[in-house]
Amino acid sequence: MVSRVIPVEPFDLVIFGGTGDLARRKILPGLYRRMLAGQMPTEARIIGAARSKLSHKAFREMIAEALDTFIGAEKLDPEMAKTFLSRLHYMHVDAMGEDGWDDLGALLDKDANPVRAFYLSVGPSLFGPIAEKLYNTGIATSSSRIVVEKPLGHDLASAKALNAQLAESFDERQVYRIDHYLGKETVQNLMAVRFANALFEPLWNARHVDHVQITVSESIGTGGRGAYYDKSGAMRDMVQNHLMQLLCLTAMEPPGRFEADRVRDEKLKVIRALEPVQPDEAVRGQYRAGPEGPDYKTDAENPDSRTESYVALKVHIANWRWTGTPFYLRTGKRLRARMSEIAVIFKEPPHAIFPKLPAHQSNALVIRLQPDEGITMRMTIKEPGPGGMRLADVPLDMTFADALGPDAGDMPDAYERLIMDVIRGDQTLFMRGDEVEAAWEWTDAILDDWQERRDVPKPYDAGGSGPEDALALMHHDGRRWREIEV
């Protein structure tokens, strides 16, 4: 199966923080791949902006090294790479001062393209000042787009303050709050599976679904960013944004049309229907030392840390579709494997006609985000051969790399897809301001409860599945977590 590439309009994209890690590791290599695929028009310009005083040549040399590192010299087309680098420009711009803004405006006005976008790959403290400068200098037009990365606030109050700052300079229709999880092929396929097939939607409710598990596990620890991570923790870093978005797409009602605000309206309804999480429905933990490295407190450089590296929650949605069906969310660092998946576990048949046979697993629809993106449906069948009715659980597997042929291995990275959506002006896969605030309001209640009770994270073994209390969270309900495995 060959994917169809639709070119976008000519654009000017300014990347603030253009010399930073995200720009070199994800944004610019992704744009190179879009050019290689024929999606980027020849008139497109990409402008890196940062405090460093670099020449255009020095910036291009820096990005050439990044392409070698993050794409691989063996995968680069030398001529195409040369063409891509020729489209790069660099501007020294002081986000908090006056230097460079006039020069940036002059460059953009010369041979201006129809689409003008600004990617703020910088710390959130600079979002407001940069947005204000873009507006006051006239660099941002009424049709310009601005992209902001997480963290989108530290709590509800800071999220509201950030939204208010952005609103002073840009309309909501111009603001793109990026969550790279929503750019993953399988996440979007979740909507296709639900709403483009008559098979699943009639079963997608509390009458037929026993429970849903959403897992995002990482095998690494906090690495060299332990002191930074200790100020946020798994709840702020992963649950409030990534897992919340996966929950919303799994639980939302069908929108009237596949349009940005209609999809986001339905996601917002899910967040507002979330019931408060009770103390015995939330577990958090910290990893112990293991073969891969020291314990969490050592990584965080804080021997008294009460910040969680692991969270497990039992979540209830108070609406007609999902009342009675719990959603179990978990995420953590230094676990057994790097894995992200959504598992919809269906109920057992209402009457067992094979009572003498051993119990078998329930049907499950598993949407795997990483590694090996794909969708699997576990079905129960009869084992072939004589000797009676023996049941076996088998997967109906649609791993994209197998089902869609060699082109599946070249699927766009999440950042590639989302940046092209920015250029197209499609906000469907981006969070709206009220959506972010609603997620923080729900999250803050859990964080405040932990703070008031002075809750201490439970230790868990590095390379395992998380704290024992998280296993008990499921066992008390007569259920089990799915195995964390590659």
Keywords:
486 residues, alpha/beta, Rossmann fold, nine-stranded mixed beta sheet
What's a concise summary of this model?
It holds the Pfam family G6PD_C. The protein is α/β, with parallel strands linked by helices.
Radius of gyration: 24 Å
Per DSSP, what share of the residues sits in E-state strands of 2 or more residues? 15-25%
Which residues form runs of ≥5 with pLDDT under 50?
Answer: none
Strands of the widest sheet, in order across it, are: 14-13-12-11-7-10-9-8-15
What is the CATH homologous superfamily assignment of the largest domain? Dihydrodipicolinate Reductase, domain 2
**Averaged pLDDT, please?**
90
Kindly give the count of domains: 2
Counting DSSP H or I runs of 4 or more residues, the number of helices is 15
CATH topology of the largest domain: Dihydrodipicolinate Reductase, domain 2
CATH class of the largest domain: Alpha Beta
Helix content, binned percent: 25-40%
| Helix-strand category | alpha/beta
Q: Which geometry do the CA atoms define?
A: globular
Q: Do you know the CATH architecture of the largest domain?
A: 2-Layer Sandwich
E-strand count: 15
Query: What is the makeup of the main sheet?
Result: 9 strands, mixed
What order do the SSEs take from the amino end to the carboxyl end, as H and E? EHEHHEHEHEHEHEHHHEHEEEEEEHHHEH
Instruction: Report the end-to-end length measured between terminal Cα atoms.
Output: 26 Å
Domain Glucose-6-phosphate dehydrogenase C-terminal: 191-482
Domain Glucose-6-phosphate dehydrogenase NAD-binding: 14-189
Family: Belongs to the glucose-6-phosphate dehydrogenase family.
Region (Disordered): 285-304
